[in-house]
Amino acid sequence: MEPVTDFPERFAPGARFQWRGTNAERELEVVSVRPHAARILVRFDGIGDLDAARALAGGDLGVPDEEAVPPPEDFYYHHEVEGWRCEDASGHLLGTAVSLERTAGGALLLVDTGRSEPVPVPFVSPIVVSVDRAAKRVVLDPPEGLMEL
Asked: Are strands 137-140 and 85-87 parallel, antiparallel or unpaired?
């Protein structure tokens, strides 16, 4: 698997994760783990053959929110921003956050503006003016034309 975490030490024997696929969900427990190039090879309890492992492909592996490592200041989990209000400095609604994606060019906030596709907004200052975790709000100052895509 390709870990997309800032806390890879979580992958240790005995660790429990929640796996979510398109139409299924289950708890998995790590039996063993070892590095393999830029990825890790993980063996889960109850996943004994290649077909069982392939059935997990494309799903997401995570931990319950109550077990998540508290994020450092100015760090936001990708799933955490889902549904947050995105507005401009005057409080005008621009849309709703769909997710926060990591890309080679940096983090992108995907914003549902009601159009066909979410608008990718670079998650950088000065475009991101402020983030209020308690209010579940992101204040944006997008360059002209960005939100009209």
From this structure: parallel
Sign of CA pseudo-dihedral 30, 31, 35, 36: negative
pTM of the model: 0.67
What are the φ/ψ torsions at residue 31 (nearest 5 degrees)? -100, -45
Closest Cα partner for 80 from 108, 101, 99? 99
The CATH architecture of the domain made up of 85-148 is: Roll (2.30)
Give per-residue pLDDT as tens, 40-52: 899 999 999 999 9
32 CA to centre of own chain: 24
What is the tens place of the pLDDT at every residue in 98-127?
A: 999 888 888 999 999 988 899 999 999 999
Q: What HEC string does the chain produce?
A: CCCCCCCHHHCCCCCEEEEECCCCEEEEEEEEEEEECCEEEEEECCCCCHHHHHCCCCCEEECCHHHCCCCCCCCCCCCCCCCCEEECCCCCEEEEEEEEEEECCEEEEEEECCCCCCEEEECCCCCEEEEECCCCEEEECCCCCHHHC
What are the boundaries of each domain within the chain?
8-67, 85-148
